[in-house]
Amino acid sequence: CTTPSPMSSSRSDSFPPPQGFIQKVHQFTFFYIPFSLTSSLFKNVLILILLYVYVAPTFLSLIGGLLGVYLVWNVLKVTLFAEKPRKRPRFDESDRIIPSLKQWIKQVKRSPSTPGRRYIPCTNPGTGEKLCDDVPAMTAEEVEQRVQAAQVAQDQWAKASFADRRQVIQKMLDYLLEHKHEICAASCQDSGKTLMEAYLGEILANAEKLRWTMKHGEDCLKPEERDVPLAMITKRAEVRWIPKGVVASIIPWNYPFTSIFNATISAMFSGNAVVVKPSEWVAWSTIHCFEKIFHESLIECGFSPDLVQFIVGYGDAGSTLIKAKEVRHVFFIGSPVTGTRVMEAACEGLKECTLELGGKDPFIITENIDLDFIVDYAARAVFYNLGQNCICAERLYVHEKIIDSFTEEMVKLTRKLRQGATICKPGRLERDEVFDCGAITMTGQIKIVQELVDDAIENGAKCLLGGSPIMTEKGQFFPPTILANVKQDMRIVQEEVFGPVMLIISWNDDNTVAEMANDSELGLGSYVFCKDARRAQSIADKIVAGVTLCNDYGVSYMIQSLPFGGAKRSGYGKFNGPEGLRAFCYQKAMMRDRFPGLMIAAPKFFRYPTLPSSHHIVDHAVDMIFKSSWIARGKAFMRFLGEVVTFNAESKKEK
How far is C-alpha 601 from the chain's CA centre? Predict the structure, then answer.
C-alpha cells in the first residue's frame, strides 16, 4: 500500500498511514530514542539516520524534525562542545618534591644508617624465596615529608577540570591493560594468590572501576541543585562537593593492587591527594610495580607525581600518617580491633573515616536450588583466594532437606582442587602449572585458622576434608577444609576465620535462618540462593548487612554504581559508587541569585529599627503559607494585609 499523490482526488491528509509504518514509528519511539540519551557518537548518528528513514515524508515529519534537532545537538555536544583536557607539557621530574620509593631506597642505602631504623623482609609466601633485600621502614619524619609534598601537589590538582582528571584516569587504564601480567605476577608473588584470582580481583575489577569513574564521576560530583520555597524563588540553592585535601589510605595485603585502587581512584577524581600506606606484607609489589602506575600517568599528563604518595613501614608509620595535621580523611581496611584504634587516632584531629572492618558473611541455600549450580558457587565463595577475602562466605546455611547431598557433592569437588605456588610466567600455562588455590600470605594467620578449626572439632564439628596446615621449606599452605555438624554457638561461627574453611550449618525455617545470619557482630556481605525470587528477597530483607546478593557471589565490585561498605562492627562509610566519590569531599551548601544582577532588598518589616507590627506580619505570613485549610489561609491573608497597612502607617510616623 502506498500513500496517494497530493494531486490525487482523494484527500491525502486523511489517508491513514500503513500499519507497518506505524509499527516502525512505535518501535523507533520506544526503543531507539531512550538509547540516544546516553549513547555514543556512533549510536547518535545511526539513530539520526534511522529517524529520517522511518518518519519522513509522513505527517510525523515535524516531530521527526524536532527529534532530529535534539539528536544533532547531542552529536555536537559530544564532538564540539565537550570539555577538552588542557594541553600540558610532560611534568619535569626534577621538580618533584619527594623521590619515588625506588629512588628513596637507594638514597637510604647510600646515606649513614638512621639509628633505630627497622627493615621489612619481602618473601614469596608460596615459595619462601626472598623477593628483594629487606626494605627500610620509614621514620615518622619521612612519613610527614610525604604528606606535606602531597598537600602541595593537591593545590594544583584541585583546580584541574574533570576533563583533565579523566585524561589521567584514562592513562591509568591504558597502563593497566598494557601491564596486566606484570601487575598480576607482582600480586601473586607478594600475596601467594593464583594467577586466575589475580586477573579477576586485580585487573577486571579495577578496569571496570576506571571505566565507571571516567563515565559517571563528573555527574556524581557536579553541583546538585536543590528546591527553594516560593518566597525564595529569586535564589538558586545547590550542594557543591569540595575536595577535602589529603586522604590517608591504610590498606591490607590480601588484594594489594585493588586495595590501593579502591580509595585512591575515587579520592583522586574527587580532587584530593592520597597518601597510601599498604601492609608491610606487600611492600615489594608496591615498590616494584604499583607506585609507577600512578606516577607515570600523572607525569605524562603534566601533573606532579607527588599527588599520590606511598609509605612503607609498620604500624607506627600508619599512626603517624593518621595524626598528620594535613590529613583530612582516613580510609582504612582491616580488623575491627585495629579499626577502633584508627578511629581513636583520627578523633584527635576530628577527621572523618571510612572503615571497612571485615565480615562473617552468611551464604544461605534453600532446598529448591539446583545442586550442581550451587556447589560451584559455594566452593568459589569459600575457597577463592584461600578465604583471605573480606566478602568470603564464612558461614554456609544449607537447608536440611539437601544438606547431605550438598555435602557429598562439595567434598567430591573440593578433592579435585589443586594447591601450590603460582607459576608467574607470561603466556599460557601447562596443565600441571595451574593451581586452584595458592598460599596463606601471613604466617600468623595459619595459627589463627588452625586454632578455630581445632576448637570446632573439639566441640562436635566433623572434619570431612583438610583441617591442618601444610608447611614446607618452600611455602606456607592451608588446604581447603570442610567442617560439617557445625553449631551456631561455636567460636568458628562467631569469629572471622579469614582462611579456606567451609562451615556447613543446617536450617529449616526462613525466619530462623535470617536470625542465624544476623547472629554476628559483623555485617559486611551476605548471599541468598533460591529459585523463588520473592522468597529470596524476603530472606534478604531480613539480613542486616552492607551488601546482599541474590543468586550470585562476588560480583558487587563489577557494579561500581553501588556503594560498598558494612554494617554493625564491619565499619561505616562507603566506597564505590557516587557515595564513594562524595565521601572524600565535604558538602558545601551554596545559595546565589537566580537572575544575576537582580538584587532584591529584604522586605521593610525585616529591617532595623524593628516596628511594633513587624512580628505580627511574620506571624500571619506563616499561617498564610503553612495552614492546611484554605479557609484558614484566606483569613490569615486578610490579617496579613491589615498588618501591612498598620506597618506602613508606623513607618510614616517613624520618618
Answer: 46
3-state secondary structure of 541: helix
**How many whole angstroms separate alpha carbon 169 and alpha carbon 307?**
14
Long-range contacts made by residues 448-453, C-beta under 8 angstroms, separation at least 24?
Answer: 448/497, 448/498, 448/499, 449/478, 449/497, 449/498, 449/499, 449/500, 449/501, 450/478, 452/491, 452/492, 452/495, 452/497, 452/501, 453/481, 453/483, 453/492, 453/501
CA distance 545 to 191: 28
Q: Determine whether 473 is an active site residue.
A: no
CA distances from 367 to 24, 256, 295, 407, 508 (A): 46, 38, 52, 13, 9
40 has a pLDDT exceeding 70: no
The pLDDT score that the predictor gives to residue 83 is 75
Please give the Cα distance from 577 to 217 (Å, whole number).
9
pLDDT by residue (tens digit) across 260-302?
998 999 999 999 999 999 999 999 999 999 999 999 999 999 9
* Side chain identity at residue 398, one-letter code: V
Instruction: Determine the Cα–Cα distance for residues 169 and 308; give it in Å rounded to an integer.
Output: 13
Q: Are 297 and 172 in contact (CB under 8 A)?
A: yes
- Residue 439 three-state SS: coil
CB atoms within 10 A of CB 490: 20
Degrees to nearest 5, angle at CA 170 with 165 and 174: 150
Q: How remote is the C-alpha of 653 from its chain's centroid?
A: 65
Cα angle 18, 21, 27; round to 5: 150
In angstroms, the CA 290 to CA 132 distance is: 16
Beta bridge partners of 463: 483
Dist. CA 622–CA 263, nearest whole Å: 47
Structural contact between residues 530 and 536, judged by C-beta atoms closer than 8 angstroms: yes
Per the annotation, the verdict on 356 as an active-site residue is yes
Take residue 103 and report the three cell numbers written for it: 629512588
557 pLDDT tier (thresholds 50, 70, 90): confident
Number of other CB atoms surrounding residue 282 within 10 Å: 27
Q: Which residues contact 29 (CB under 8 A, 6 or more apart)?
A: none
- Residue-by-residue DSSP string for 215-264: HHHHHHHS-EEE---GGGTTEEEEEEEEE-SEEEEE--SSSHHHHHHHHH
Name the active-site residue from 197, 356, 394, 579: 356
- Which amino acid, residue 321? L
CA distance linking residue 539 with residue 369, whole number of Å: 15
Count of Cβ atoms closer than 10 Å to residue 117 Cβ: 12
Catalytic residue among 184, 353, 390, 392: 390
Question: Global pTM?
Answer: 0.85
- Range 65-73, long-range pairs (CB < 8 A, 24+ positions): 67/33, 70/36, 71/36, 71/44, 71/47, 72/48
DSSP string, 11-58: -GGGSPPPHHHHHHHHHIIIIIHHHHTT--HHHHHHHHHHHHHHHTTS
Neighbouring C-beta atoms of residue 127, cutoff 10 Å: 18
